[in-house]
Amino acid sequence: MTDAQTPIDFEHALAALESQVQRLESGDLPLEEALKAFEEGVTLTRQCQQSLDAAEQKVQLLLAKRDGSLDTQVFTARDES
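User: That's the sequence. What structure does it adopt?
Assistant: Structure tokens below.
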């Protein structure tokens, strides 16, 4: 279980969230455990969203021109196969 006061990195938060989702989807948890897992999932989701928001802000800063406008570029994913 994660401590809401201790931020964890995005990858660990996402892995923990996936674990909680699997536990909830199993349908085998007693109600109290399911509620705890759901609560932790909400916390992890918020942490992931904050990490993504911070990353987006960094990218925008890196792409910002000196005049304040953004230098937008088309992003194409590499084919990793």
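Residues 12 and 30 are 25 Å apart (CA to CA).
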